[in-house]
Amino acid sequence: MALEGVRVVDLSRVLAGPWCTQTLADLGADVIKVERPARDGAAGGDDTRGWGPPFLCDPAGEETAEAAYYVGTNRNKRSMTIDIATDEGAELVRTLVERADVFVENFKVGDLARRGLDAGTLLARNPRLVYCSITGFGQTGPYRERPGYDYAVQAMGGLMSVTGPSRAEIADDASGGGPQKVGVAVADLFTGMYAVTAILAALRHRDRTGQGQAIDMALLDAQVAMLANLGAGYLASGVAPQRAGNAHQSIVPYQVFEVADGHLILAVGNDAQFARFCAVAGCAELATDERFARNAGRVRHRATLVPLLAARLKLRPRATWLVELEAAKVPCGPINDLAEVFADPQVRQRAMTVEMPHPLAGTVRVVASPIKLAATPVRYRLAPPLLGADTDAVLAEFGFDAAAITGLRARGAI
To answer: d(Cα 183, Cα 163) in Å, to the nearest integer?
Structure first.
């Protein structure tokens, strides 16, 4: 495995941080997930353990207390409970870090400094450490102390301004509409993946120079970066793009169309594909019309062209269109729900789900990693761990005997 021998101490929870550390774990890193102990009847651990339903079911079909949300972001990790609010617990984390390669946290700015777990303190203990902080707005700037949530960042970072029905669609629909968030927490997920990239780069630098470093990841930064071509377009033109519904800002036709028995997406990416589409649709004359022959013209004359295409597409059922357009190498596709996604033969052939043994459910089916490495493939070694399942084993690896562990537990440090 590519990261075998790399030890990660993970103080992150919810999504951005755990998504980062799950990817590192999939690549072979030993990820030690440090969670708060349950206290006085209150649930401990990562908040997402209770973010259900849906919850895992045991082999008899009875619901457990472990949420599917948590299961989806924490495989291949080990869990130990440490109360970092205690001096002894915080010192215990510092002990782990002395023999770690990477430390990941997503606490509010300044929280860990009060515990002596900030980057300066831990890098002094272990100068080879890669210390990655993930926050909503970063370690600097006027918003640095604000809590950051994916939903708010999608709004503040511009994504919601270009997501949702266009003004024309709102005008045509009495139910109204407006800006919308993406259906999954993409700011969190992109930040997690950018964090992986940053950590791998920092490890490469550390291995070459012996020097660790701090990484400052912010959801808002990642959200602004992932605006990609829309951000570049604004900077080039000074014109803020508007919501376009399911259409593309710069390519036509590239959107959802209604067909005789439902909907499909048409994703014509160049002029040759447009000509082939027109041939299949029985409107070859549109491909030679000077208004539509080139993509720039199709974008300018979108309001004229799209209704002509929409009328054609309504004439045949989805299955017929998909077969004929795919044969003509015109990009298109069905709009699948998740049941259809996981039944899709391509998804199945690519092994995008995997079953893992689980102490509560017997087995659990999880979404697999998309990373396909020929020489060092992802391995599914450990099911998402129960809270504190590995506390004693990890402490033993660090030289704590049974009596010392009992004492830590009695004093509330673990």
So the answer is: 11
The model's pLDDT over 58-77, given as tens digits with 9 standing for 90+, comes to: 999 999 999 999 999 999 99
Helix (H) or strand (E) holding 32: strand 30-35
> How do residues 223-240 score in pLDDT, each as one tens digit?
999 999 999 999 999 999
Catalytic positions, written as ranges: 188
In a domain, 249, yes or no: no
Q: Cα–Cα distances in Å, from 316 out to 256, 259, 279, 313, 319?
A: 15, 6, 15, 6, 8
Confirm if 302 and 251 have CB atoms less than 8 A apart: no
Same domain, 269 and 361: no
Residue 376 shares a structural domain with residue 274: no
Residue 85: inside a domain: yes
Range of the domain at 313: 254-335
pTM for the full model?
0.91
What distance in Å separates the CA atoms of residue 230 and residue 239, rounded to the nearest whole number? 10
Provide the pLDDT for residue 174: 53
